[in-house]
Design goal:
The longest helix has 17 residues, at 123-139. A seven-stranded mixed β-sheet has the order 1-3-4-2-5-6-7, with helices on both faces. It is α/β, with parallel strands linked by helices. The chain has six helices and seven strands, in the order H-E-E-H-E-E-H-E-H-E-H-E-H. The chain has one domain: 3-Layer(aba) Sandwich (Rossmann fold), CATH 3.40.50.300. It has helices at 29-39, 73-81, 123-139, 158-169, 186-200, 221-229, and strands spanning 43-49, 62-67, 99-104, 108-112, 143-151, 174-179, 211-212. It is 31% helix and 17% strand. The chain is globular. Helix 4 links the parallel strand 5 (143-151) and strand 6. Bound molecules: guanosine-5'-diphosphate.
């Protein structure tokens, strides 16, 4: 039996105790609840942009997701949205590379960047990726954060470092999100966390908090929702 995680709405027993902390994090229950509420709302696929002039007009705060092919990006986006099917593994090598946009309740735009780091990718494909993503990152004023996904089994690779350097140069804030943490031991995860934090500490646009997730075991998903909900357009009252 897997242990699972306690649902966010089970945190506060209604005894009036303020700001109970979610287990294993320094996030308060209010932030977790705000994240749960935002991501429980419907998300719609807006479009896939294969060229920079197809990127939708700005307007909403935006969060992008970047990572090597197979890092678990589609699974993570689907886990955040509580869906199985919205983000597909669209970045299979050889397929058209595009940025897929999802509108979350008119409050946050999610941008799923094409996967990178596929060793056998032809040079012109790599150039196409770099041109599209670099132009997007440089010109996207509403981009609040890019989640750079790193497979817990592999840690940072040079292709991830290249992307982080691109983000540093574009002065676009980013946050490292470890994926598939169910695949590694607690000790290995602890070591990976330490070495990754030491490396990103030197990078100007990197967020100091590392997120640890497993889409399969629903670990760290509520915390990531909370983290991203803080960037969303505020809820309209009435
Ligand atoms: P993408 O290419 O980055 O979009 O990756 P996918 O989301 O398609 O996932 C790639 C592979 O990793 C698939 O076989 C998934 O089932 C697997 N995977 C994704 N997330 C997890 C996770 O949290 N834990 C485990 N064990 N496997 C995962």
């Amino acid at each position: 039996m897997s242990e699972g995680t306690s649902p966010p709405d089970a945190i506060d027993p209604g005894d009036g105790v303020p700001d109970a902390e979610a287990p294993g994090t320094d996030m308060d229950a209010d932030a977790i609840e705000t994240g749960r509420r935002l991501f429980a709302q419907p998300a719609t696929f807006v479009l896939g942009a294969a060229k920079i002039d197809q990127v939708p007009a700005a307007g909403l705060p935006e969060v992008a997701f970047a990572g090597r092919s197979n890092v678990g990006k589609s699974s993570l986006i689907n886990a955040l949205l509580g869906r199985r099917d919205l983000a597909r593994t669209s970045n299979t090598p050889g397929r058209t590379q595009q940025i897929n946009f999802f509108d979350l309740a008119g409050r946050l735009m999610l941008a799923d960047l094409p996967g990178y780091g596929y060793a056998k990718a032809p040079k012109n494909e790599v150039r196409g990726w770099t041109r599209l993503v670099n132009t997007y990152l440089k010109g996207r004023q509403d981009l609040r954060r890019t989640c750079v996904l790193i497979d817990s089994r592999h840690g940072l690779k040079d292709s991830d470092r290249d992307v982080m350097s691109m983000l540093d140069t574009a002065a676009q804030p980013y946050q490292v999100v470890l994926t598939k943490c169910d695949k590694v031991s607690g000790a290995a995860l602890e070591k990976l966390t330490r070495t990754t934090l030491a490396e990103i500490a030197k990078r100007p646009a990197a967020h100091p908090r590392l997120m640890t997730t497993s889409s399969m075991k629903d670990q760290g998903i509520a915390e990531l929702r909370a983290e991203l909900a803080a960037l969303a357009r505020p809820e309209q009252n009435g």
